Amino acid sequence: MRALLFLALGLWASAAPISYVLTLKVAEQGTLEGSAQVTFPCPGSSEFVFRLYPNHFGPFLSVTGAWAEGAPASWEALDPTVLLVRAPRPCPPTATLALAFAGVLPDSSHGYGIFWRQERTLTLAQFYPLLAPWDGGWRVHPTFPFGDNLVAEAADYVLTLSAPLGWVPVGSGEEEELGPGLWRLAGENLRELGLVLVKGFEEERRALPGVRLRAVFPPELRLAAERALAIAAEALALFTALLGPYPYPDLDLVFVPLVGAAGVEYPRLILIDWDYAVDPERDFFAEIVAHELAHQWWYGEVGTDQVAEPWLDEGLATYTSGLYFEARGELGRLVEAWRARWAQAKVLFPRGSVGCALWEFAGSPNARWSYSGYAYSGAALFLHEVRTLLGDAAFFGALRRFREEHRWGLAEASRFLALLRAAGGPAQAALEGLIREFFGR
Ligand SMILES: [Zn+2]
């Protein structure tokens, strides 16, 4: 009976084959203490790889205990961001690993400032050990100071959070206050569990058919928050019409300090750098909101390898955000901007191409510019040229098919190009020409 009930509940409540049960205790001074219990299909290995992404920038997270099926397991750091856990015996069909971890949230910014303690914000991106994807081996790439380093399978999450009094969590998933300073966050099919704690912020909600939008912002940014909600509502309707339904029940838009990134995406959560909120009437503000919203489809729902093939999610997100501007008759302006930035990237890094991996951009003379010039602008321009060639019906049909095929999975660029080719019809030769032009070296 119990097993049956569990199965029934599981079918109803859980969609992903991987699930995380997390606990986290955060102190205002930045100390972290937590645990992660991860359940996943046994990969046929008794060695498991977890990532501690914040450690790219310093020793911020460490594992203090490991258990496999309840028995003590050993662990070893292969790199500050790569943890190898060895189980004492082979795993059952469904493996359960538990890790205890501790850490510190620095008050100095590193990278994009997504693991950073400030007076009114505790931004806690990737605060827990994250299981690497398994595809016959553990998929582990090096980390870089720019770009998105996370590559992960979608999973179901439940977090029990102990937060300092007066702080409110906003994360990927549903937030529920259990008692003073005690919260529960839960969400399904999340590529990762994004999390920010804020103090003294306000919120504004807007309900759309099937989707709840919420902006969370410091009081002085109310105008920007309202503008962000209006942009998100409009873009969401547009993207839904062209790509299919928004993949989650809600979206939180939170204004926080970031460094060198105008916005960052997490499932059901986007962070917007509050410096850009000072003038929300600028086109660039709308571009941030539309771009990070587009990532809910291209990253959240259709996962990609953001390190090996960063153009795939960034190109699709950039082009999708362009659809918001197209509705205002402004796509031409964006296309010309993409063309100019792509041309600039080719001058900076002539041996590069749209298809370069993060590690290739890292070796170029001006890594961030080459990366954004190729993987964002060049890739968006490529998609625009393909759409012009194939026509809207074939182009958006291929995008929807790509989405349906790889829903909650990790997609590969070769499959995306194959779908474009399949939609190519009489334009086949011209399409091959475009692929050579953008991806050739
Ligand atoms: Zn992006």
Write the layout of secondary structure elements.
Elements: H1 2-13, E1 19-26, E2 31-41, E3 47-51, E4 61-68, E5 71-72, E6 74-79, E7 82-86, E8 94-104, E9 115-117, E10 121-124, E11 130-131, E12 155-162, E13 167-171, E14 174-179, E15 182-190, E16 195-199, E17 202-208, E18 211-217, H2 222-243, E19 250-256, E20 263-266, E21 269-273, H3 283-294, E22 303-304, H4 310-326, H5 331-348, H6 358-362, H7 367-390, H8 392-405, E23 410-411, H9 413-422, H10 428-439
Parallel strand pairs: 1-12, 18-19, 19-21, 22-23
Antiparallel strand pairs: 1-2, 2-8, 3-7, 3-11, 4-5, 4-8, 6-7, 9-10, 10-16, 12-15, 13-16, 14-15, 17-18, 20-21
Helix pairs in contact: 2-3, 2-4, 3-4, 4-7, 5-7, 7-8, 7-10, 8-9
The structure holds zinc ion (ZN).
Describe the model.
- The protein has 441 residues and is of the alpha+beta class.
- It has two domains: 16-200, Sandwich (Immunoglobulin-like); 303-439, Orthogonal Bundle (Neutral Protease, domain 2), CATH 1.10.390.
- Helices cover 33% and strands 30% of the residues.
- The protein has ten helices and 23 strands.
- Helix 7 crosses helix 8 (392-405).
- The chain binds zinc ion.
Mean pLDDT: 95
Q: List the domain count as a whole number.
A: 2
CATH architecture of the largest domain: Sandwich
Looking at CATH, the homologous superfamily of the largest domain is tricorn interacting facor f3 domain
Strand content: 25-35%
Widest sheet: strand order?
Answer: 5-4-8-2-1-12-15-14
- CATH class identity of the largest domain: Mainly Beta
